[in-house]
Amino acid sequence: MLYAQTTPEAKRRAFRERLASGELLRMPGAFNPLSARLIEQKGFDGVYVSGAVLAADLGLPDIGLTTLTEVAGRGAQIARMTDLPTLIDADTGFGEPMNVARTIQELENAGLAGCHIEDQVNPKRCGHLDGKTVVDESTAAQRIRAAVDARRDENFLVMARTDIRATQDGAAGLRAATDRAKALVDAGADAIFPEAMRTLDEFAAMRDAVDVPLLANMTEFGKSELFTAQQLAEVGMNLVIWPVSMLRISMGATGRALDELNASGSLTNNLDEMQHRADLYDLVDYQAYNHFDTDVFNFTVAR
User: Fold this and answer.
1) Which of 14, 5, 27 minimizes the C-alpha distance to 232?
2) Is 116 a known active-site residue?
3) Nearest Cα to Cα of residue 72 among 122, 27, 108, 101
4) Which of 33, 118, 124, 129 lies at a C-alpha separation of 20 to 30 Å from 303?
């Protein structure tokens, strides 16, 4: 009832233990707190909160317009509704190294299990768009050192994301990505998010380059092929995210429903596409509220 029963500290410890096991953890992107509960109900390993999704939810493009307050607030709303660990996108850390330090502590306070900080120039761009620019190695390392130094819970995961692969073509881009990943690990990063890898061989090269957990981003309509979880596990990935997938599917369904309303004036033909009232009530645990206070829930759920 109300919020998750597992404390943020316990979720962080469990997240670290699972990462240490070497298995592949599957973390679909939640676009709101309710979808985070559904991700848990369906048996996934964690919840991911995408900066692109958070911006889109506000009606904004993913170009660094969101603020730390908005990201931490939405992260808190999502993290507190699930017993799973929640990993959040912290963009470039929202400023200079001292801002990065504050970002980490705000996200700790929000109950997140970890975050990733990228090496793009601020204002950043979506990781799968052309025209990205990254900062120099020293600046990228400063961001990670600030993040590591600022955390108060040693189990809060500081992941470094590097976007350098897409700034150069071919072997040069991959070599730049592995070199940058090594430097970020030396700066204290607990894990690496190599953005816009194009092939399984590129993921495998990243695995050979560093000895920390690696995240694979399986976003649709981007620069990466869409590999299965099994394929990614076979090349040594430790986490896989589908950051925008659930939002895309939900918005696609919403668009089709609105078209049907325009066409026929009713959604009678779409009932089998909807989450049933009973399933929604089960997901939000209405019955637990009934046990707590019959004045809150005093009617029979339609089946």
Assistant:
1) 27
2) yes
3) 108
4) 33
Query: Which of 37, 217, 238, 248 does the annotation list as catalytic?
Result: 217
pLDDT along the chain (303 residues), means of 10: 94 97 96 98 98 96 94 98 98 96 98 97 68 90 98 98 90 95 98 95 97 97 91 98 98 97 97 95 89 67 64
Token representation of residue 109: 């306070």
Told to judge if 126 belongs to the known catalytic residues of this protein, a careful annotator would answer yes
291 flagged as catalytic: no
pLDDT of residue 72: 98
Total number of residues shown for the chain: 303
Active site residue 108: no
* Amino acid type, 95: G
Q: Is 169 a catalytic residue?
A: no
Q: Whole-prediction pTM value?
A: 0.94
115 labelled catalytic: no
What's the half-sphere exposure (Cβ side, CA atoms, 13 Å) at 124? 27
Catalytically annotated residue among 40, 45, 91, 202: 91
Query: CA-to-CA distance for 69 and 175, rounded, in angstroms?
Result: 36
Q: Annotated catalytic, 161?
A: yes
Out of 16, 116, 151, 180, the active site residue is 116
Q: Is the distance from CB of 216 to CB of 232 less than 8 angstroms?
A: yes
Judge contact between 111 and 76, C-beta under 8 A.
yes
The encoded tokens of residue 36 equal 């985070």
109 included as an active-site residue: no
